Fold:
Amino acid sequence: MFKTVAIVGATGAVGNEFRTLIEQRGWDAERYVMLASARSAGREVRLGGRGYVVQELTDSSFEGVDLALFSAGGSTSQRFAPIAARAGAVVVDNSSAFRMDPEVPLVIPEINPQDIQNHRGIIANPNCSTIVLLMAVWPLHHVSRVRRIVVSTYQAVSGAGLRAMEELQRQTRDVLAGRPPRPEVFPHPCAFNVFSHNSPIDATGYNAEERKMVHETHKILHDQAIAVTATCVRVPVLRAHSEAVNLTFEKPMTAGQARGILSAAPGVRVVDQLDPPHFPMPIEATGIDEVLVGRIRQDISQPDGRGIDLFISGDQLRKGAALNAIQIAELLEPGGV
Structure:
């Protein structure tokens, strides 16, 4: 195990999840360093029954650090991840800063662990929506090549951090009390509302979240020919993203075949009960490692039998962020890959 582990963004939603997972998975590093902005410096966070004072992130923060888990935003990663790597740390970065850099591996351990071997000090964690999607798509693609993916996301507010979760809770109380909801983190009220994902839209009409899902899918699966289109929205859910997925395969696949493949897939739990109906829900995906997959059915609009529909729920703070990064770090240990 790494001797010294730094968590960058230690007071954020993913930073909190890093600490929880490190404790749950029995890591035994000799030293942990908690780093955050000057605003959070001096706060105490806990790990393994011990308190750690959060230090301000600076250029000298990574002396003696073996592993740096980053979740503090793209601009912070762009500045400090190379500094950490030059200091000798392996960086696992949860931001979008390096995902599409051809020299930086973009890794989901259940799918492309071999790519880790090509790292030059920085390994990128994919976007949370991409991870949740590909955990269900990859096992099927591995058996019969997927030619097209159509995905619509229902993304929890926690994807935007702790302040977004607090905003949904506050707005919900306000609406129920007859007060108007006041958006601060998001551009629109999130309580009792659904709106297009709050990321920039380019000239094509796609927002940044949708573009991430397209480009990251190609990079992770090493297949630029897969046609991918996405529609990403925010929903008034605290935690765990859900996605409706339509797949077109190169060869016919039945719903029964898809269900059998997914039932044996690592990191996936099939929740597909017809009577009484019980399918993936974010409330049940919250706090667990597995991505829930259900509503597995033949796409009746594709009479050639090459279409399958799925519905997925996955905890984007866990498998969609912190857990995936922790799994990457564990693969870096001797014998890990």
User: Anything to note?
Assistant: The radius of gyration is 20 Å. The CA atoms of residues 246 and 309 lie 5 Å apart. The first strand starts at residue 4 and ends at 8. The chain has two domains: 4-125+321-331, 130-315.
